[in-house]
Request: fold
Amino acid sequence: MTREEKGDAMEEWSIQQIARLAGTTSRTLRHYADIGLLAPSRVGGNGYRYYDRVGLVRLQRILLLRDLGLSLPQIAGVLNRDVNAHDALTHHLSWLRQEQDRLTRRIAAVGATIDGMEGGEKPMAHDMFDGFDHTQYRDEVIERWGQGAYAEGDRWWRGMSSAEQRDWQQRVADLGRDWVAAAQSGIAPDAPEATALAERHVRWLTGIPGTPTGTPAETKAYVIGLGEMYVADERFGANYGGTAGAEFVRDALRAYADANL
Reply:
């Protein structure tokens, strides 16, 4: 029986095993313990540290939150809040699956383009941009703001080069990731960090032709209305880590709009 199998049978793993499984180092895990972020489940008489399954789940959440760009103090704040670990991981999994789908489609599109070029074939335009789709919310835009708003935005999008479209999509993905990180950090919707994100979000929205932002009053109504739509429609909420994340974005946008628009 291997050491890993013994650890699994005992429902605990040594610090060296956990470091290897998680792709980190024993030094990092000891640092997490020193700052109160991840304590071992027990310390043996020889001084070796061991972790049980509760510790493994906590470490998984730490690593996920690190990937979102949270600092260690922010991660501690998230983990110390009275939030069910299962619910938190469920929301995070929803966001990860959406990102996985988007990236899988993009990988396939780029791979198909390369295969076509190597085979001397012309890439099919409708296949090249799978995963870059800007039309998925077409019906909602038309219903709320009219055919003209959608048509103008569509012309703007199609007028971009493929590189400009990819850059724009990346900025959108970065914004969504930063919203998820902010929501999970436990800050208030009107905190300075949330206000800065809301301002960035509004700049992004108002940079799209066709949006109803002709006057400050129209912009305010548009921003607040979008925030409500993020919560009401789970497809939008998935961009922000689920319902709780969408509610944070809605509240932050409303606080920003009330104070600045």
